[in-house]
């Protein structure tokens, strides 16, 4: 007990010498560490727990099989990326960007990232589909605890601002 006390006293003395700014910084760091630990636990939990947690928070996960078969119900809604760009997907597949979303049969089996097709009649792009817990195999700096989409021409380690999240 004395050894524990002796170790504890110097820590108290050192922390008592911190300025208000350092104390605030220390508090922020410990809060960040606490938040990071919680996030790590969530992301390492089983897929069922991640999905259940997201549903409890009101998040509807993407249903890749249905999207592949052109049922876009789980994609419908307003999505916003880190730069403030908004993508609205309507139930008929049309969008606010004059693009149309089409399911791609077996996209989850033919590509490392499941995707839908976005077309405007002459050109197109892929709409990468990221279910809750699914990580981009090329590197992922997004919030994997939420469903997200990416508009892209090719795969890659997208910047965090590129990912669209349901609003």
UniProtKB/TrEMBL annotation:
Residues 1-20 form the signal peptide. Residues 47-58 have a biased composition (Polar residues). The keyword Phosphoprotein does not apply. The keyword RNA-binding does not apply. Keywords: Signal. Residues 61-93 form the DUF6287 domain. This is DUF6287 domain-containing protein. The lineage of its organism: Bacteria, Bacillati, Bacillota, Bacilli, Lactobacillales.
């Amino acid at each position: 007990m004395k050894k524990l006390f002796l170790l504890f006293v110097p820590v108290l003395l050192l922390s008592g010498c911190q300025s208000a700014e350092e104390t605030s910084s220390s508090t922020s760091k410990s809060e960040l560490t606490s938040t990071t630990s919680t996030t790590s636990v969530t992301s390492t939990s089983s897929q069922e727990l991640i999905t259940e947690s997201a549903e409890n928070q009101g998040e509807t996960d993407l249903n890749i099989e249905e999207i592949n078969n052109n049922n876009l119900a789980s994609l419908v809604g307003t999505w916003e990326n880190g730069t403030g760009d908004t993508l609205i997907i309507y139930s008929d597949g049309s969008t606010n960007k004059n693009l149309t979303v089409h399911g791609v049969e077996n996209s989850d089996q033919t590509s490392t990232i499941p995707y839908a097709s976005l077309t405007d009649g002459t050109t197109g792009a892929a709409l990468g589909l990221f279910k809750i817990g699914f990580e981009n195999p090329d590197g992922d700096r997004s919030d994997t605890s939420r469903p997200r989409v990416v508009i892209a021409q090719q795969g890659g380690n997208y910047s965090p601002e590129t990912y669209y999240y349901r609003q």
